[in-house]
Here is the input.
Amino acid sequence: MELIDTPNFFLSQAVTGDGAFGAYLYKIDKRTTPQCSCGTSIQTPEHVFMHCERYKTDRPISWNDDIVATEASKYLINTMKILWEEEKEEEKTGVNCVRRISHRPRRQQLQQPKTSVRLK
Ligand SMILES: [Zn+2]
Here is the structure.
């Protein structure tokens, strides 16, 4: 089953923010910076969909009007696709990308067992 091209795949990421956003990729250790490629802000869904100059093409004028609801979801889906394309490109060029997570030392392995401090 190919999920990656279904509208819901992109829409759910647009809504939850758990997708190809710098802030999220940084959180899960896939990026070295949460910064947006525009350089003005951390790349959150709100920044991308509401404010960023890079992703303003076809941005709906209003998010509340029912008339533009379809337009809005088209915009969200298309913008998520662009973000994914950029993320694929990022993985190739590796500018802000953590290339191989498995090669990074795990925090748990760095901790010595002698400590009495227990982390959650
Ligand atoms: Zn931006």
Residues 8-110 form one domain. The radius of gyration is 18 Å.
